[in-house]
Amino acid sequence: MPSNAPVGVFDSGVGGLSVLREIRQLLPNESLLYVADSGHVPYGEKNPEYIRERCVLITEHLLAQGAKALVLACNTATAAAGAELRERYPHLPIVGMEPAVKPAAAATRSGVVGVLATTGTLKSARFAALLDRFANDVRVVTQPCPGLVECIESGELQAPATRELLHGYVAPLMAEGCDTLILGCTHYPFLRPLLGELVPPSVTLIDTGAAVARQLQRLLAQHDLLAAQAAQPTRYWSSGNTAQLCRVLPILLGERADVLPIH
Questions:
Q1: Which residue among 74, 145, 151, 178 is the active-site one?
Q2: Over the stretch 116-154, which tens digit does the pLDDT of each residue have?
Q3: What does the longest C-alpha to C-alpha distance in the chain come to?
Q4: 178 is known as an active-site residue
Q5: Helices (H) and strands (E) in the chain, counts
Q6: Of the residues 55, 178, 185, 246, which is catalytic?
Q7: Is 55 a catalytic residue?
Q8: Where are the domains of the chain?
Q9: Residues with Cβ < 8 Å from 123, sequence gap 6 or more?
């Protein structure tokens, strides 16, 4: 595989663009392919078999486009399909996501950590294992956030309905004394400005986008696949409404691009 081949990134929708943004910042030479599986969003409410099926299909598409590595920019997809994809494609460098329990446990001063995530992530065995490993000395309060992903998919980052929904999810965590919040879904970093208005400045917000970019850098270096040439423009696909992704790209990433359909 040539080192200037692209890296494939995918998510149940637009959330993975928050990870793509971090990859661009750290690895500006890497050409990127992005698939938003928006026709099947949100993954958090779907069963694991269904998610695995979608992940295999999207991985096959990205490999057909020449991807040299894969980033599962979705906590729920990683929990449901990460192990199977690594088995199926043993030679493909694959980076997944997981909620930032370890850094949050290290950052908290009150000893109470809040987790905003999808139902699927919070129910997963992977999340339970993270808590077992890293959260013995802290109290973790989890908050499923149905409806939030759909607000972000629509680009409604500051809408009154989004604010009301987010406030309803954050208020109980604040009442429990959380001083650290894990953004356990790749969509949620796009709500950082709004969250900043809803929680005190003393509350630390943690997501794993930058850590995923660093892990990708390590894996590419290990396989001698770091791009040396300047990146090609990012190519986008969506299984949902392609016009919708065209519309929210400027809101989320500050750029315009064509979006191709994928089924």
A1: 74
A2: 998 888 988 889 999 999 999 999 999 999 999 999 999
A3: 52
A4: no
A5: 11, 10
A6: 185
A7: no
A8: 7-97+209-261, 101-206
A9: none
